[in-house]
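Review form for a predicted model. The reviewer records the input and the model, then writes brief findings.
Reviewer: anonymous (R2)
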Amino acid sequence: MIDFENIDVEVPGFNPELFVLGLSSLIKEEHKQEGVITVVFCSDEFLLEMNRAHLEHDYYTDIITFDYCEGELVSGDLFVSVDRVFENSKNERVEFLNELARVCVHGVLHLCGYGDKSEIEQVSMRQKEEYYLRLF
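Model under review:
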C-alpha cells in the first residue's frame, strides 16, 4: 500500500493514482513485494529540521528515506520537500511533476536496495531513475 500525506504544503497537479501505479510497478519489476510506503510532502524548513534531527546534516535536501524493509517486503517513509523539488525542476528545466516523480522513484529505489554514496552507485541510481521514469 502506498499512501500520501501533506504536512505543511500542497502539491499542485498531483495525481496520487498515477504515482501509486508507477511506484508499484517499479517494486514489482525489481522482484520485490509492496509493503507499506508513506510519501510525506513537506516544506524545505520541515525537511531541514528532520535532516538535522535524524541524520545530523545541516543542509536542504529533496528527500529523506526511512527504510523499514524486511526481506523482499518494501516498506518505508519518504519525506519529500516540495520546495526543493520545485527549485530542482526550475534548475533542470523539467516539469515540476516529472521532477517529483524522479524524487519519489529515487526514494523507492533506495528502499529496493540501491545506494548513491559512491560515484558508481550514483551512475547506477541515475540509470534506474531514467528507466523507471520512462515507464512512469
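Findings: The chain has one domain: 2-135.
Further findings: The mean pLDDT is 93.
Recommendation: see findings above.
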